[in-house]
Amino acid sequence: MKILVTGGLGYIGSHTVVELQNSGIDVIIVDNLSNSEISVLNSITNITSIEPEYHNFDLADKEACNLFFNNNSDLDGIIHFAAYKAVGESVNNPLMYYRNNLESLMNIMDNMNTRGLSNLVFSSSCTVYGQPDVLPVTEDSPRKEAESPYGNTKKMAEDIIRDTIYATDLKGIALRYFNPVGAHPTALIGELPLGVPNNLMPFITQTAVGIREQLSVFGDDYNTHDGTAIRDYIHVVDLAKAHVIAIKRLFENKNKRDFEIFNLGTGNGYSVLEVVKSFERVTNTKLNYKIVGRREGDIEKVWANTDFANKELGWKAEQDIDDMTASAWKFQLALKK
Ligand code: NAD
Ligand code: WQD
Known about the structure:
Mean pLDDT: 97
Helix content: 40-55%
Bound molecules: nicotinamide-adenine-dinucleotide, UDP-4-deoxy-4-formamido-beta-L-arabinopyranose
Oligomer: single chain
């Protein structure tokens, strides 16, 4: 199999390239380095002893995209990670997000359609559920009005894929990730946030290592057991493995419908303070944190029902919250060297 991985030098993409190559699958990466570093290519090569083919261009550039597919019409599938993902930035610059996230997708699907390439795995997000009325959320839970332009790009992308598949011979799987955290056990790849992290785990590790002074815990007045918000954190390596299964499922025609959607989480919710406690436990350190007010736009609690992914994909997240905090910490320490 030969698979195109867009955004393959990014956080989740790089871990997925490693799992694909370790499964004997040939990979071509397209990434314009808008949120990643070229050194990740070396790290992937070091982990797998295989250097993946790499192309640097903007997938939202239709001509560049067409040119790439002109020269690569023998792909067995595409895993499409490339997108902008900063929620706050999308609120301030919505057109940048709609343009990048949706034009890239449409350029890819246009080429799939005209060149008879049929298998697409797409990175969606639990953000499409907003604050669910019933927990845990299943794939049939209603999607809510998006909280941000970023969230809306995921909702719209799912609809674009569904409608295009309905009208063509394409097949696709949308994977709705819950909260990906952690890093590869080698600590050679992991999450590399630019500037001040928005997400909890990199903020925790940067605080512990002394880059940030203090973690602000956003709100302790939620309707949860300790008052802090609950999420379903999932180890990035578990997430990456699900992509290998999903693309093989399409390639081997094992899919039950032309467009399938799967939740990817552990099925367990952890509060912010439980994540902090896990971090303190596995690192044997005290984290400097302070409870502050809620963050605007945050939901109270969400975790996944993963029955459908467990049964249909034969996939289950294996790593627990302590594995996640420990690997994130190991990666943070490796960055210092
Ligand atoms: P990331 O920013 O680390 O990786 C995305 C990669 O795509 C980057 O390397 C970036 O340089 C590249 N890219 C972006 N736009 C591009 C373009 N137009 N052309 C070529 N390359 C481009 O993000 P990630 O955390 O690895 O997320 C991957 C996907 O998963 C994204 O679609 C994201 O929205 C989705 N997702 C992420 C999370 C999360 O919390 N990390 C949760 C749910 C869904
Ligand atoms: C987790 C919890 C915060 C930082 C975001 C996107 C979502 C998806 C995943 C892409 C929340 C709390 C955080 C901090 C804190 N991405 N927190 N102090 O908000 O669940 O989801 O990433 O699709 O779309 O919105 O993740 O890691 O930012 O926050 O207390 O400094 O940690 O309030 O409860 P979130 P997160």
